[in-house]
Amino acid sequence: MSYLEQDNSAILSQQAGRESNARTYPRHLPLAIREAQGVTVTDMDGNEYYDCLAGAGTLALGHNHPRIVEAMERTLETSRPLHTLDISTPAKERFVDSLFESLPDEFSERAKVQFCSPAGTDAVEAALKLVKTATGNRSILGFQGAYHGMTSGALSLMGDTDAKEPIPGLMNEVHHLPFPYDYRCPFGVGGETGHRIGSDYVENLLDDDESGITDPAGMILEPVQGEGGTIPSPDAWLREIRRITRERDIPLILDEIQAGLGRTGETYAFEHAGIIPDVVTLSKAIGGGLPLAVVVYDEELDVWEPGAHAGTFRGNQLAMAAGEATIDYVLENDLDAHAANAGARLREHLESTAEQFGSIGDVRGRGLMLGVEFVDTDADWQGPGPHAPDGDFAAAVQAECFDRGLIVELGGRESATARFLPPLIVSVSQIDEIAAIFEEAVAAVTKTDAEPAEVAA
């Protein structure tokens, strides 16, 4: 029997028997995908799902978008090279044209680009090497709650210690600073006061000769923390961080791997704050669904020697063709504005759900990068601020969503935040249906939790 004739259970069983124990998504999203189109996927049993995971934000135009398919077919049909290391081609130059066109002029006019190995974490590693080489310094400033990938250097930047504790040899000197998580403010106050204290803390720390922090090679942050729970940084805070780093000649690296290319309602999330970074790491959406990662940075930092950073698969021509098509489509069709409007509609639905159920502590995000944090209102919570995050409730909601035809992922503290990353082409009617399914799922879990446990005879 061919795999196309098998059902979900058969393929999942085979996967479990052959793949690493590190596999993640199939454990809580138990499907094998047969077909995918636009915002939906269909499994081997014929069940259809709205895909609000979308390759962790990779599929900006959804599955099998005609513009991307056409670009890849054209590349394959014309005997173009598929793998060129860092040797240039017309496809590569067109991709860089489109990439630079998508960036603010003030940045792109001074920009250099480094193609990396194909994952976002490879771009982060390259960015770290870049600023360390340019400054001659070794330490890096990161933020609590951050996620920048799963390679060694990227792991050292992560706020979550579980993923890095078993791994020896994380020798990068990283200092984790407080991120302005408004709902769970690290200073216990939240709002404008909280993020002002946060930026003042960073500035005072950097000016303190007894802080224990050596001269930093750079600072890296996500304008919207993704895996950390869909936490947007306030515009005023980000502007202050830009001022602080600029005045102290600390290169500012912005990780736009998940938030970039229209998802947050601007082409890039840092544009909400009106700042210009020194370095931007990009992957996911810019490859049109295929593996591609780049670092774009100010030419002043371009001091490394030839061959200082390489990678065999940095010449993925098919990804560059797909990426060019994606970037051009996003810009031509103002998908950033659509993401802002569709995201506002989805957020309104989610906030309406939150008003009905006390288990929802916070709804947040930007554009089509939204999160819903679940809390345990019954727990004996002794800490400051809101109730404890409730990962069990979130997992139950995720399962109920899946049973009803909606794929959402979890993240944040205790994996208690349901995250929405639908393709940017999602329609208004699809937004309404996604929100309705989610509300039904929350209601179902709430009802189950409220039912008295059966007493054994």
UniProtKB/TrEMBL annotation:
GO terms for molecular function: pyridoxal phosphate binding; transaminase activity. Residues 1-18 have a biased composition (Polar residues). Keywords: Aminotransferase, Pyridoxal phosphate, Pyruvate, Transferase. Residues 1-23 are annotated as: Disordered. InterPro entries: Aminotrans_3 (IPR005814), Aminotrans_3_PPA_site (IPR049704), Dat (IPR004637), PyrdxlP-dep_Trfase (IPR015424), PyrdxlP-dep_Trfase_major (IPR015421), PyrdxlP-dep_Trfase_small (IPR015422). Gene3D superfamilies: Aspartate Aminotransferase, domain 1, Type I PLP-dependent aspartate aminotransferase-like (Major domain). Its cofactor is pyridoxal 5'-phosphate. Pfam families: Aminotran_3. Transmembrane segments: none annotated. Belongs to the class-III pyridoxal-phosphate-dependent aminotransferase family. This is Diaminobutyrate--pyruvate aminotransferase.
